[in-house]
Amino acid sequence: MHFSQPAMVASTRIAASGVMKARCSSGELYWQAPRDCMVKSSFVMNLILTGRASVKKEKIRVDALVHYLLLEFQQLCAYITLLRCIRRTIMTKTDHKHKEAVVDVPLTAVFVRHAQAAAADEGTRSLGPLLSSLGERQAERVSKRLAEESFTHIYSSDLLRAKQTALAILKHQEDVPWTVTAELREVSPHHFAPGYIQLTLAMRREIRAERAAMDKFVAHVRRAHVPGEKILIVCHGNLIRSIVPLFARRSPDQAVMMDINNTAVTILDIWPSGEAVLRLSNCVKHLIPREVT
Asked: Domains in the chain, please, with CATH?
C-alpha cells in the first residue's frame, strides 16, 4: 500500500504490541519494527525525501524510527560541523598567505646626501649656501643614475644645498610628489658620536630638538607609506648617519658609523616588523674619481 504526498493523518493509535496504526486519507498504515530496531535507510530516506512510503512488507516500530532519525540527524550535524571546520581552516590559511604576500616586501628608503656646497664666503644665506660648480655636476650625475627609478614620494631638507640637489633629481621624476621639510635638516654629530666634547645646556636642548624632529619624520614615513613603495630622501650626512638606525628602532650611538660622501646613495629596506636592512651604503659609482668629495 502507498500514500501520496501530502498524506493527511486523521488519527493515530499505538497498540501494546508496539504497532502504530495511523489512519490517513489513503487508508490505514501499520508500522512495526523488528526487535533489533534495525530500519532500512532506503525506506526512511524515501519517506523523508518524497513523502511516500511502501509499507507492503515493512513494519516499523515508532520508537525505532525516531531513534534512527535522531542518529541520522546527529551524524548529519557532525558532518556539517566538520565541513565548517575545514572551511574555516582553509579560509584562515588563505588569509594568512594573503597577509604574508602583502607584507613580504619592505618599504624601501633611498637616501642621497646633497651635492657639494659652495664655500661660506661665496654667499651667506639663512638656509645655507647653494651648490658649488662641482656640486652641480655631482647633482646632475646622481639625477641620471636615479632616472629609471620609480619613487612613490620624494622628501628633501629645506636647506638650499639639499633642495637644489633634489631639484636636479626631480627633472627625471616629474610626476612624483615632493615634500620639503625642516625635519630633514643637518644635525649634530653628537647623536651617533656622543661624549667627544662636553655639552652645554644650550647644546643639549638643540640635540633634543633634533632628535624629536627625526623621530617625527620616521613616524610619518611608517604611517604614510606601505610595504612595496620606494621613497627618496635627499638630506645631509650626519642626518643619514643618525636616522638610519632610528628606522630600525635602534639608538644612533649604538650603530656603526658610516662615511657619507656628497650625492652618495644609501638604500635601506624598512620592514613592517620594525627591523631594517641596510642594502647599500655610501655608493658613489655615478661619480668619476676626481668628483668624489
From this structure: 9-64 (no CATH), 105-291 (3.40.50.1240)
Burial state string for 14-40 with b = 16 or more CB within 10 A and e = fewer than 16: eeeeebbebeeeeeebebbbeeeeebe
Give the chain's mean pLDDT.
80
Contacts of 42 (CB under 8 A, 6+ apart): none
Strand order across the beta sheet in which 153-157 lies: 178-181, 153-157, 230-235, 107-113, 265-270, 276-283
Share of the chain above pLDDT 90, in %: 54
Sign of the C-alpha dihedral computed for residues 120, 122, 124 and 125 taken in this order? negative
- Give helix 237-247 / helix 201-224 axis angle, nearest 10°: 60
128 phi-psi bin (left φ>0, alpha ψ -120 to 50, beta other): left
pLDDT score of 70 more than 60: yes
Cα angle, residue 139 at apex, residues 138 and 142 outer, rounded to 5° = 85
